[in-house]
Every structure is written in C-alpha cells, then in structure tokens.
Specification:
The protein has 13 helices and 12 strands. Strands 9-8-7-6-10-11-12 form a 7-stranded mixed β-sheet, with helices on both faces. A 5-stranded mixed β-sheet has the order 1-2-4-3-5. Strand 7 and strand 8 form a beta hairpin. It is globular and about 55 Å long. The protein binds nicotinamide-adenine-dinucleotide.
C-alpha cells in the first residue's frame, strides 16, 4: 500500500523522512492506497524566478517556491524560508509537516511552505525587501487570508511579513492584514507571536521531563540553534529553573557545566551575531553539543541534525524537537530502541502556528487579545495536544511521533473522506 510512482527528481532526505512517517501512519490507520497516494504529494506547487536588482545595479536571479501540500481542513498555512539549502524537495517536506502540525493542534488549516534559495546575510535590507516583494507578487495568485497564509521561518522575520502584507495589499487595493502572520504588532501582529514557538517548546519540554521523572530544577539542557526558536527556548527553560549547559549556532558552540548565564549570552549574541566566545563559557565543537550528557536536548536549527552517523553517541534522556525534521527516520528508530523519549516536531514546535492562528483570527476580526490571553490559550491548546498524543501512544504502544502522526493523518484523511473526491 505504500508504493509511490517514480519521482523524476533526486529526493532529499527530509522528503524521504516525511513520506516514511506518512507511510507508517497510513499503515496504522489502514488508509486506502488512493488516500495515501494523495497525501504523499502536494496539492499544488508554484516555482518562480525572482530577479533582484542589487544595490550596485547588477541583476541576479533567484528561485523561489510555494508548495501547498493540503487544504482539506482549511486554508494552507506555513512559513517562508530563506536559506542556501532551500530546494523544491525540502519545501515539499516542510509543507507536508505543516499539514500534520495544523491537524494535530486542531487548527482549521492545511499545510504549506515557501522558500527562496539564498544566503540572506549576504544581502542588504533593501535588497531583501526588493527580493521579498518580487517573490510575493509572483506567488500573489495563490496566497491570501482564505487561501494560503505565510509566516516567518529560517532566515525571515516580521519585516519580511510586513513587506509581503504590503505588496499583497497594494495589489489588492486595500489593506489585508490576514494574508500573513508573524507580522509586527503595529500592523496587526499578535501579542506573544514572536516567542510562541519557544513557549510551546518549553511547555512540552517540561511536561516531557515530568513524564520521565526528571526533576525540573537543575535539569541539564543543550540547545542547538539560537535563532527565533532556540534563543527564547533557552531563556524560558533557564527561567523555569533548568540549567542550560550548552548552546550552539551555525558558527560554533559554547558550554558551561554549571549553567550558562542565558541573558548575558543573548546580549553577547546581539552584539556579535554569534554565541561563540560568550563570557563565562568554554568553546565546544559545534556538533559535539548534540552528544553531551544532558537531561534534555532541544535541536532548534535545521533538518537532519540527528542521523545515522551520530545517533549512537546521543546521550540525552529526552529530545524535544524545536526544529522541523531534526531527526532522520533511521535515527528515530534507534532512539526509540534505546528508550530515549523524543517529542516530535509536529507537537513540540506547534506553538508558533497555534499563535499564528490566533493572529489570523484577530486580524480577520480586527479585535486584539492581551498577551496573557494569548499565552493562556496557547498553553491550553498545546498541552491538550500533548495529552492526546501521550494517551494514544500509551493505548496503542506507539512512540510519541507515531501517535502524533496517527492522530494528525487520521484527521486529514477524515476530512478527505467527508468532503468526497471531486468530481
Ligand atoms: P532562525 O533562522 O531564526 O535560526 C536558526 C538558528 O540555527 C540560527 O541560530 C543558526 O545560526 C542556527 N544554525 C544553523 N545551522 C546550524 C548548525 N549546523 N548547528 C547549530 N546551529 C545552526 O530559524 P528559526 O525560525 O529559529 O527556525 C529554526 C527551526 O525551527 C527550523 O527547523 C524551523 O523550520 C523551525 N520552526 C520555526 C518556527 C518559527 O516560528 N520560527 C516554528 C516552528 C518550527
């Protein structure tokens, strides 16, 4: 039942991992082969050329994508990534994961993802603005508050969302705040959106530690990646009494067995652009962070961080996936066999899309909630998803990832079934 038509392109491992996870869930759910096939492929995808006039007057061409994996439960929803790794296969995988994440959190959305193959730090702000506006105008026909709603991801931020909102609004002839989420507060962004993914990761991490009987106070944590997700996760975990013993970014890693001063480290990061050489820390090989003897490991950088080559050396007792797809399928099997609790990405980092949903609801109603209200609703929703996943995992003797996938894929398949196949 899990055979797929041949692909003519070279497949990247993130897409292999995403499809394998779907195949496992489809088997548990005994999905008809036709439904499995439909869910294995994107509903719609658009690849666009994005010519950019550089500040020096030269023109350079970039390639961008927007993939809408599924919209059976509502408009497609997903981030926009600017990174050299971006290609259509990566975007397809990320779009598929968004479908499951939204379904698992019971949001009325399908899944999408976008990306441009670029190293954004090599370009000026004005160049990035022109690039974003041209990309937004190219994908204009398929996005919108009722169609597909982008948000920030790796290499993009609230400014990127403001430019997309403005480009879309100019073309529409009126202001459309609901076309993106993760936009600045002054433009109708939500309280709590910027740190929502990290808050969600923190809620789930604390629940996971409790589940395996690890005392929260003093528990040792390593965080890979100190961007929008990793940085606030490290801060919130430290504020909850845990000991953040190591953090990394693309340039290197630092450690302190007694616990890093995370607030001082963030100030160092702001002033230098990296965690490397932060005061009160010792240097560590970047990827050695993953192999430290810690209670909790939060990979919050990119896909494939934990793989066949390093999984045997992973010593964390609990792994909470802040990033999307940080554990390959093979590594995931080994971690399960070794009894390491892995909280899957579609559950662990769902806080971002949950508060994106709140932002979209607020934008569409033009009525805004307080920070406390957003935080209370986020906590309730993500912990409710956690409880559902833990319950199903115990009932069916599944890993948390398998249980999360069975719940999410089951909801999407049910929507398909109820709507029927057109024509
Ligand atoms: P970001 O660009 O803000 O940060 C990425 C961080 O990872 C940076 O600190 C970068 O230096 C670091 N990094 C890159 N390569 C590394 C490596 N090899 N080793 C160590 N660090 C490395 O991106 P982000 O928004 O924080 O996203 C991180 C992950 O979380 C991605 O997988 C993204 O899809 C996922 N995610 C993000 C959100 C969100 O709201 N931003 C929501 C859900 C999931």
């Amino acid at each position: 039942m899990t055979s797929l038509p041949d692909s003519t392109t070279t497949r990247m491992s993130a897409l292999d991992d995403a499809r394998q996870q779907l195949a496992d869930a489809a088997m548990h759910l005994e999905l008809p082969d036709g439904t499995f096939q439909m869910l294995s492929y994107p509903r719609r995808e658009l690849t666009v050329s994005v010519p950019l006039r550089l500040d020096n007057g030269d023109v350079r061409l970039f390639v961008g994508h927007r993939v809408q994996h599924n919209f059976s439960r509502g408009p497609a929803k997903g981030g926009l990534r600017y990174a050299p790794s971006v290609d259509i296969e990566e975007v397809r995988a990320l779009a598929m994961w968004m479908t499951w994440k939204c379904a698992l959190a019971n949001l009325p959305y399908g899944g999408a993802k976008g990306g441009i193959t670029i190293q954004p730090r090599d370009y000026s702000r004005t160049e990035l603005e022109r690039l974003t506006r041209r990309y937004a105008s190219e994908i204009f026909p398929i996005i919108g508050p009722e169609r597909d709603i982008p948000a920030p991801d790796v290499g993009t931020d609230e400014n990127t969302m403001a430019w997309i909102m403005d480009t879309y609004s100019v073309a529409s002839g009126y202001t459309v705040p609901g076309v993106v989420t993760g936009k600045p507060l002054q433009l109708g962004g939500s309280q709590g959106r910027a740190s929502a993914t990290s808050r969600g990761v923190t809620h789930v991490a604390l629940a996971a530690l409790e589940r395996v009987g690890i005392e929260q106070r003093g528990a040792r944590v390593a965080v890979q990646g100190m961007g929008k997700v990793g940085r606030d996760t490290a801060r919130f975990l430290a504020a909850s009494g845990l000991r953040v013993v190591a953090v990394s970014d693309q340039f290197g890693a630092v450690q302190n067995a007694s616990g890093l001063d995370v607030e001082a480290l963030c100030r160092h990061l702001d002033s230098t652009g990296s965690v490397v050489a932060a005061p009160g820390s010792d240097a560590l090989e970047r990827d050695d962070l993953l192999e430290l003897d810690v209670d909790l490991l939060v990979p919050a950088a990119l896909e494939g961080a934990i793989h066949e080559g390093n999984v045997d050396r992973i010593r964390a007792r609990v792994i909470v996936e802040g990033a999307n797809g940080p554990t390959t399928t093979q590594a995931d099997r080994v971690l399960n066999e070794r009894g390491i609790l892995v909280v899957p990405d579609i559950l662990a980092n769902a806080g971002g899309v949950i508060v994106s949903y709140f932002e979209w609801v607020q934008s569409n109603q033009t009525y805004w909630w307080s920070a406390d209200e957003v935080e209370a609703r986020l906590q309730a929703r993500i912990l409710s998803a956690w409880n559902e996943v833990v319950r199903l995992a115990a009932e069916r003797r599944l890993s948390l990832r398998a249980a999360a996938m069975v719940l999410a894929v089951g909801r999407v398949a049910q929507a398909h079934e109820l709507r029927g196949l057109y024509p």
